[in-house]
Structure formats: C-alpha cells, structure tokens
C-alpha cells in the first residue's frame, strides 16, 4: 500500500519523526510504520525492543500525546506500527504546529495556524465577535432586502419581517444574547467590509492573453449579501459581451457564459471562502473566465467528488444559512452539478475545478473547440488539426482532408467517421462532391468524452 493521507512509511526511527506524529494528531490521525520502505516493503528494524520503550515516552514528553505502539512481524522481519489518534486540542512540537495534508507534512503559520486553533476549540472565524460593533454598523436596507427574498422563498416565518435588527440577527445566530455581533453578521449586512476585514472585497480584472496583461480592473466592496448581484451586474455591463443570434424572428442575446452558472460560482466563492485570508479574484480573459477564492475544500471532500452526489460542508455555516434562506443557494450540495449542466446545455466545455495556491479555482471556457479541450478526446493529431481547420474555414470535405494531410480516401473517411461518432462534427449532404463536414451545433456542444473509440490511441 503506498503512502497516503493517513499512512507514512519510514525505514528507521529518528526523533524528528515526532513532527509527523504531531501532524497526524492535528489532522485526521494516522499510522506511521517504522521498518517499511516507501513502497510498503519490509526492511525491518534491529533495535525494536529499545524503540518500543522510547517512542511512547518521547511522544508523551515532547507532545503530551499518548499513542499506540505495536510490534509487527512479516517475512521474518520486525517492524513497528505507531497509531496516532486525532487530538481534540492543538499539538505543537518545540513550539511549532505541524499538520498532515495529503501525503505531506506542513508547518502551520499565520492564518492556517489560526484556523487550526479555532477548529480545535470548536469555533470558526465567522463566529468570533467583532469588538466594539454596534447596531449603527448595519445597513437596514440590506437586511430588508434579505427579508423580502426569504419570505418569497418561504424560508422564514411571516412575522420575521417585523423583527428589529437585533432580534433578527439573534434569530440567525449572528448576534449573542448579550449583544455581541459576529464577523458573519458584519460581512453579510454591514455598511463597511473594512470594519471586519480589508481583504473581504471581490476583485475583478480584464486581461489579455496572460495574467501579466491587465487591461483594467474593479473592486466590489459592498457587504457580501449584496456582493453576488453587484459582481454579476458589473460583469454584464463592462466585462462580458452578448453575442446576437436569432431564433426565428426573436433576437437572442445570451451572455458568453451561462448566467446561472456564473451566479452559482460567484455565490460559492463568496460563501465558502476563507475570510481571514486574502481577496477573491475573478479574471476575465479572451477565451476563459477564472474565479479563485482563498480556502481549500473541506477535508471531507475532494475535487473529483464534487460532480457526484455529496453532502454540503460549508466553511461558513451562518453565512451559508443566510444565502440559503434568501434562495441564492440550495442545501443539497448540487451547486457544482448545476454549473456543469448549464455549461453543457449552452454548448460549452465543462469548467475546470482545482485546488491551487491555498484556494479553490473554477475556470469557465468559452471555446469548446480549443486545443486544450480537444485533447481530452483521444484523437489523432491530424483529427485535431482537422477540427481546427473547420473552426477557421467553416467546413472541410473528404477530398480536402486527403490533400491537407496527404492520406488515402479510406483513412480520411475513417477519421471523419470517428469525429462523427464523437459528435464533434456534422455531415452536410449524403454522397458526392457536395458533401462536407461542419462543427457540431450549437458550436461547442462537446464535453468530457464518454470513452475512446475502438482503434484510437490512448493518451
């Protein structure tokens, strides 16, 4: 078994491995094997009797932690298994807090350390009180907008609209009985984000071909309940275009990307971000739109599981509750599925989702026939070039295919048939010189391939 989130192999014992024990205890617990190599093969330890006494004593003396230390035998070699429990309090080794993430050990500092300390005492940053905050710091107009939306969705009782600000915030668990207001309360309904965090704003930038080519930018600094609407309105007005098309006599002007998918992604970035960290960034490029918010996914979720049925694990429970009551989100963990479905329906590639740089990214692509997207389909290079040729020239015939790639009619027919089966192109005409091939309609109606066609090379 290879090393993973909860397993670590070491060929021999060193006292510095107390850091690994510390990291497991601060994370999800785990097991460390002494006397196994990186592949899990037994190499054995000669001084196992000595280590069976030393390791338990050192973990207690240096970490204040009790671990199980077991002697194991395999293939006539002895090795040691250390079982590390999850600690209910933060554990430090010589004043440094370690944390196991994936198959690596990290030293926690700054915001990451603050979040660990809060987690271990059962608190979250959004729940902490804002010193000196008063009712004067709240925007009643935003609160009334929330009440109106929540009543339309019937997610609050009718008499809630008559509550004064203090009573309502207490009902939403945003204020204590003694009158203290939480970070979440000021973020949601406050007059100024700076009262809570100078980095709670939402940055938007228009770029050329790279991250270094910034053309213009804006910053949304409203309270976060109003932020999603403000971000989307600015995108529609200044950053995105509306291609004009017609359905019969009806003029259609949809956004470059599905508006519902954008709204869902923006709301997710606002709700789930780590507000003790940096800004949320939205970058608009010629061919893509990239949203990044600080804060990795919860430990219970992995990126690959987001498109499957999964529970919702909001980082900011109280913030998510307000957005849910207002009808901005659902509580079924289907947000990502809705985004993907909207993009597929609009004929765009599935967005790319990834954890990077201590945060979560979602990238929307405008062009389904981009080189990056086409490489997902296990195609020959000439087939990819043929699709790019059609994209540039509008169509291609079998004879053009033969001449362009110097292949036989049989090979050209076979290649084009595969593209037809993958629904990447459509055939116009039945037989003869008037037959040609165009990109599938609507343009870009292709997504993650269902599998390779028999006879095609695998990536």
From TrEMBL:
Domain Schlafen AlbA-2, chain residue ranges per copy: 3-108
One of the Pfam families matching this protein, by short name: SLFN_AlbA_2
SUPFAM superfamilies documented for this protein: Winged helix' DNA-binding domain
UniProt cross-references to PANTHER family, sorted A to Z: GLPR-RELATED TRANSCRIPTIONAL REPRESSOR (PTHR30595), SCHLAFEN ALBA-2 DOMAIN-CONTAINING PROTEIN (PTHR30595:SF6)
Name this protein carries in UniProt: DNA binding domain-containing protein
Organism: Chitinophaga oryzae
């Amino acid at each position: 078994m290879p090393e993973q989130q909860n397993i670590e192999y070491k060929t021999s014992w060193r006292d510095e491995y107390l850091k690994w024990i510390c990291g497991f205890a601060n994370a999800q617990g785990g097991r460390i094997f002494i006397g196994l190599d990186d592949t899990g093969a037994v190499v054995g330890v000669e001084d196992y009797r000595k280590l069976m006494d030393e390791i338990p004593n050192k973990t207690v003396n240096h970490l204040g932690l009790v671990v199980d230390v077991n002697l194991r035998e395999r293939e006539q070699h002895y090795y040691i298994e250390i079982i590390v429990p999850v600690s209910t309090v933060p554990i430090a080794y010589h004043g440094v807090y370690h944390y196991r993430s994936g198959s690596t050990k990290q030293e926690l500092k700054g915001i990451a350390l603050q979040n660990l300390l809060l987690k271990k005492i059962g608190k979250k940053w959004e729940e902490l009180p804002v010193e000196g905050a008063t009712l004067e710091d709240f925007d009643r107009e935003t609160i009334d907008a929330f009440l109106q939306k929540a009543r339309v969705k019937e997610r609050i009782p009718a008499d809630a609209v008559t509550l004064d600000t203090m009573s309502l915030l207490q009902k939403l668990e945003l204020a204590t009985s003694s009158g203290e207001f939480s970070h979440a309360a000021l973020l949601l309904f406050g007059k100024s984000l700076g009262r809570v965090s100078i980095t709670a704003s939402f940055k938007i930038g228009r770029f050329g071909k790279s991250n270094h080519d910034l053309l213009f930018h804006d910053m949304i600094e409203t309270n976060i309940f109003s932020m999603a609407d403000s971000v989307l309105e600015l995108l529609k007005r200044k950053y995105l275009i509306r291609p004009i098309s017609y359905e019969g006599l009806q003029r259609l002007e949809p956004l470059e990307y599905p508006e519902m998918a954008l709204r869902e992604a923006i709301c997710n970035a606002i709700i789930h971000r780590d507000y003790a960290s940096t800004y949320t960034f939205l970058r608009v490029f010629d061919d893509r739109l990239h949203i990044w918010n600080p804060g990795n996914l919860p430990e219970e979720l992995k990126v690959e599981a987001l498109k499957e049925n999964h529970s919702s694990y909001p980082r900011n429970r109280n913030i998510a509750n307000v957005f849910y009551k207002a009808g901005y989100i659902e509580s079924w963990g289907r947000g990502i599925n809705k985004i993907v479905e909207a993009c597929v329906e609009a004929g765009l590639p599935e967005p790319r989702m990834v954890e990077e740089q201590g945060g979560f990214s979602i990238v929307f692509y405008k062009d389904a026939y981009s080189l990056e997207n086409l490489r997902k389909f296990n195609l020959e290079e000439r087939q990819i070039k043929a699709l790019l040729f059609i994209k540039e020239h509008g169509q291609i015939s079998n004879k053009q295919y033969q001449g362009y790639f110097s292949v036989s009619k049989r090979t050209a027919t076979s290649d084009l048939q595969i593209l037809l089966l993958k629904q990447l192109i459509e055939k116009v005409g039945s037989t003869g010189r008037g037959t040609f091939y165009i990109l599938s309609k609507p343009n870009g109606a292709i997504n993650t391939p269902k599998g390779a066609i028999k006879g095609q090379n695998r990536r």
